[in-house]
Every structure is written in C-alpha cells, then in structure tokens.
Amino acid sequence: MNGNIDDQALQPFGSDFRLGNNPFESSRRVWRDLTGHTWQTWMIFRSGFTATLRQTYLGALWGFIMPLVPLFAFFALTLLRVFPSHETIPPLSYMSVGVILWLFIQGLIMAPAEAVAKHASVLKSTNFPMICIFVASYGQLAFEMLLRLLVVVPMLLFLHDLSLSGAALLPLVLLPVCAFSVALGILFGLAGILVQDFKNVLEIIFRYLIFVSFAIFPLSMNGIGGWLYSLNPIAIFIDNGRSVLILGQLATPGHYYASSVLSVVLLLFAIHLYYVLERRVAGAL
Amino acid sequence: MATPGEFILEVSRIHKRYSHNIPTRRRQLIRQFARAIIGKPDERELLAPGEFWALQGVSFSLARGEALGLIGLNGAGKSTLLQIIARQLLPDIGLVSVRGKIAALINLTAGFEETLTGRENVFLKGALLGRSRTMIRQKFDEIVSFAEIEEFIDSPVGTYSSGMRMRLAFSVAIHSEPDLLLIDEVLSVGDFRFRQKCLRKLNELREHASFIFVSHSFQDIARFCDRLIVLNRGSLVFDGPTTEGIQFYVDSTSDGGAASSASQNSQAPMLAGAPLTLMGEFIHQENLIESVSFSWVSDKGKHANVVKQGEAIIAELEFRLKVDDGGVIVGLPFWSPDGTMVTSVNTDTSGHKICADNGGAVSLRVRFEAFDLNPGTYYPVVSIGKNTEVIYRQPVVPIKVTASYPMTWGVFTPRVNWSQPGHVASTSTLHKSRDGGG
Lengths: 285, 438
Hints:
The structure holds two protein chains of two kinds.
Chain A: E1 11-14, H1 23-36, H2 38-54, H3 60-79, H4 91-118, H5 120-125, H6 130-158, H7 164-194, H8 198-209, H9 224-230, H10 233-247, H11 253-282
Helix pairs in contact in A: 1-11, 2-3, 2-6, 3-4, 3-6, 4-6, 4-7, 4-8, 4-10, 7-10, 7-11, 10-11
Chain B: E1 7-19, H1 22-38, E2 51-63, E3 67-71, H2 78-85, E4 93-98, E5 102-105, H3 118-128, H4 133-147, H5 162-174, E6 180-184, H6 192-205, E7 210-214, H7 218-224, E8 227-232, E9 235-241, H8 242-252, H9 257-264, E10 283-284, E11 289-298, E12 306-308, E13 313-321, E14 328-335, E15 341-346, E16 361-368, E17 376-386, E18 389-395, E19 399-402, E20 417-418, E21 428-429, H10 433-437
Helix pairs in contact in B: 3-4, 3-5, 4-5
C-alpha cells in the first residue's frame, strides 16, 4: 500500500529523487517522516511486541525472561571469577553495567538489518518510510534495556556502586552512543540489502567483539589492549558510560568527546545515505 | 482544490532496468549506491550484459475520474509500472508526477500481522496506507461490513481464509479515500459475487478518483475502463479506446487470453466470430461438476441452432454435480458479436430451484416463448454457480436468429401496438406479419 501523499500539487518522482539534498536537509526530512508517522510506528512496534508475547503458552513471561537470560549468564560467570577484575570497580558491577550497555549498543546496530528482513514485504509493497520500521524495532530494545536497568540499578544501589549524579547524567552521556549505534545500524541495514549475508557477518562479529570491548572484563591498556580501546568507539562508550554511572565521572574524556563528534558526523552521513537510497533499495528487497 | 478533468498522473519517458542475474543485480545496486553518494542518478541508456529494460520509454497521462486499463503478457512490465507510480520503485530514467493520495492494491495482504486480530489489522493496514487513526476509526464499521467479516473481526488474521484476508485488505484500501487507486489483478482472488461487489464499489469511487486497473479479465477491463494501454516487453504499444485495445492485444498475442481458450475449445469452429475476449473468463471446476451438455431444440423437438425472430426455442442443459444441489443457480447470458451482453436469464430470478437426482444429475430446459432478438448470431454462455462461487462458465453453441420482417434496428424488437386515441382508423401491430397477417 501506499503512504500518504496528501498534497494536491503534482508530486514529481524521478531518477534524481532526493539526490539534491544535503545531509542537514535529509536529516530534517527524515525527522519529518518520523514525526509524521509516530502513530503508525507505534502500531508496527505494538504489533511486533504483542505478537512476540502471544506466541507461546507462557506468553508475556517470555518477554521478561529472554532479555534477562544473557545478564544472568554473565552474573554466574562473574561470580565464578571466570573474568579478570577491574582495579576500582567491583567485578559484578563492572560486568553488569558493561553487559547492559553492550546489549543496548548491539541491539541498536543489529535491529535495523533484522527489521528490514522481517518487514521486507511491507517495505517492498508500500512506501511506508523505512526509518519508521527501524525506530519501531528500537521499541523492543528500549523495553529490554528498561527491564535490565530494573535489575541492575537496584543491585548497584545494594552494592553501594551507584553514583546518583552519574545516574542522572547517564541519558545525556548515552546520546552519542545512540547516535553512533543508530548510524551503524542504518548503514548495516542498507548494506544488508546490498549483500544479504551481511547480517550473518554482523552476528559473528558481535558474538566475539564483546570480549575486546571492555564490556564484561577489563583489558590492559598497555600494548594491544590500548589499541583495541582507542580504535573501538564501542569500548570507549561502554567504559565511559559505566564510569559515569558508578563513579560519577568520565573514564577517558578525550576519547569520549572525540568519539562523540565522530558519532554525530557518522549519523548525519548515515541518515543522508539512507534518505537518498531508501527508494532505490526497495526494489532489491 | 482538485477539479474534474485535471491530470492526476503524468508518466513521462519511464525506464526501469532489471536483471535476472544475481551478480548483475548486485553490480547494478552497487552502482546505484555509488552514484547516489556522489549525487548523480544512473541515467545511462545503454544496458550492461545481463540487463534488460523492464520498462522502456513509457509515457501517458491520466485525468481525474478516468479509469485506465493496463494489459500485457506476463513480464510485460505492468506491475513494475504500477510500483513506480505508487512510489515503491524508483525509475532509472524518466519522471512520474502524481496529484493527491494513492492507494496501491498491489500486494494486498502485505503488512498483515498473523497474530493480531482483524480489528487490529484494520488499523495497522490503515497506518501503512498513511491514514490517520481517527479516519480509520470513522470508517471502521464500513470497512468491516464491506469485507463481510463482522463475526470474525476479533479473531486473529492467521485464522482467516485467503479470501477473507483479501476482502479485508481490499476494504481498508478502498475506504481510504484515494485520489488514485492502482489495482493489480487483485480482484481475481475473490469469488464472483465479491468481485461484482468490488466493481460496484469502484464505480462509486469513480466520481472523485482515478484508476489504473491491471487484469487478465477482458470483461472486467471492458466494463470498467474508459481507456486501455497495452505493454509489450516494457514498451507501451497501444494507448486508446478499451475495445480496440483488447482487440489489438488479442491480435498481437498468438496465445493470449480467452482467445486461447476458444482455440482449445471443442466448439471453436462454431465460436468463430464470438467476442470471447469480452465474454469473461471461462471456468470449469471439474471437481465440482462434470458431463455438461447443451443443445438448442426447436418447438417441434428437433435440434436446431437457428430460430426465426419471435418464435419459440428451447435450450436443453444436462450436467452432473459432484456436490449437493443446494444453492445452485444456472444462468444463460447472451452476447452479440460486438461484445454487448444483450440479455441474460437465470433460474434464481425466475424462481426455479435446481434439483439433482441421487447421482447428482440435473436435466434442465428453458423455453424462450418468443425469441425477440433481431437477426444475427448470438453467443450464449452457460454459467452455473453454487452459492457465491462460479463452478462452470463456458461458451456454448451460438443461436442464429433469422428475420421475420424486413427492417430492424438495435438488438431486439419488442412487441408493440401503435394507436392514436381519438382516431378510429388504423391500429398497427409490428409483429403482424409473423403473427400470420401476411
């Protein structure tokens, strides 16, 4: 089905469609698409969310169990002292904050590619904005993040490992993380349409990248560990987010600010590319 | 504000490049990605190895309220063209300009969530059409009523039959108040009765909307469309009046449409000259009905395919039902050689209930007391339906009407009496000559 083209003026649609826009104009138009389809986006999210909950005998319970399983698995491994410890942050707190941030970032990056595959028929047979499908897929992720925070924050409070000022600042500190992850998500989502086995490659990368991203255990900052940290914005965002939440301060402000600038630039580029390519890739779905 | 007669769609020199070869398609996409990044469209008019034009230089326009038929063999580019007009696909070269809201009935059930109820899916489908929740809420009762699924509206769509899903999706689309409705072969999914209902609804919408109608049913095209375009291998080869377009298409395709049905039909020699393309689709559900035979019998009990204008003639029909006889209706519509349906009789409107014997055999006679059609050959179709479904619909032996009096106009001559009140002189009866008056 078609989306809304409400203007009674003749609306042109040709091979140069959207090519003349700059990244700022593209971002403005994508934002307009999003805000113009909030209810529709909510419906897509709700249908996917309720569909997940209705599938089984245990129904809604699975919606609460599944997001917590990886967290509890890493709890167990940490309590068994499988991982090395950080010098100032206790292992359980280090791991739990790292894992929820990792799962959040991973979800933001992976969700668009999965959403494209899941909603291919809708994207192919309607002109519903693809960005709304991406955002709808983030709804499930937000729910899972909230659920994990409901487990981890009380635990940090109990362990006296929570900085209240840091907790208040955390959403702000996470904004560049979101920008970076959403940008990668959009780019990988588009790349997944171009090369369909890209999703599998991403899955493999994210299965093992966690071990070099300072998410569940620290690496020595000397030698290769330092390189892995400097070249991996995900590690920088996880490390700084955790540090703000637990210690109330950024761990590596220089790295964090540089990565934040990079993230904003990357997001602008990703949105522009998405906007220009959106209708061009529909035929390849 | 839109005004009647203004152009609602302008298609100008549309080209779309495709490839069946996966590496070639991938190369095409990469080239498009790269060109998009540098801000230049890929408008080369040459084809790379492995590529072909799915559409090549297609141009036409459509006025508000106009219904345009679109036909062509499979792979002619019909669906691609509709997708481009619906802004689902971007043309490689050329421009499409649309005025107003579009509803594209291309893949009707796309977007339905199996686990959600019909009610929820009405809102979801409406959302995918870009319509607001308030609007869908206002139209909800109409949508459900049109789709005829009132009692199932709170059941998951996963439990619906394909027909129910199609009806629901179609209903949402046509109640979304489009300015331009694109219909790609979707009506063929529904049963005969629902299709008629859809066509009636589409006719209502014609007051303010335009249509592009893709169908393999020439009858639907002929009934519904003002104009026809024919695509052949991506190129527009005909744009003009519907009847001429159908004839052009049939002439230009050696194995196309109903013409092929006729050539394969055992009665083909007798049906030469029949407007088969306009007589609708021919159906025989062999799992439901068999051994159908038909013949014309004169008043004297002899087989005859010729009747004198105004005389009686009897049609004899026999068939064997493989299902019970409940809800069975037999109809006999007639077409003139130019494709006009001149009349139709059926057991339902005549109040005759079909009864089969224990073996399912039915023997039926219909006597035309006075066959008042004007001289010429008329082509009947035996149409047998069960409830809302057509189980048999085939052309049968044509009947030739010979003249009873020298001059006739139109397709039939009614029995009339002329008189002049106040004048005692002459009272003339048109059929005097054949009533024995000499």
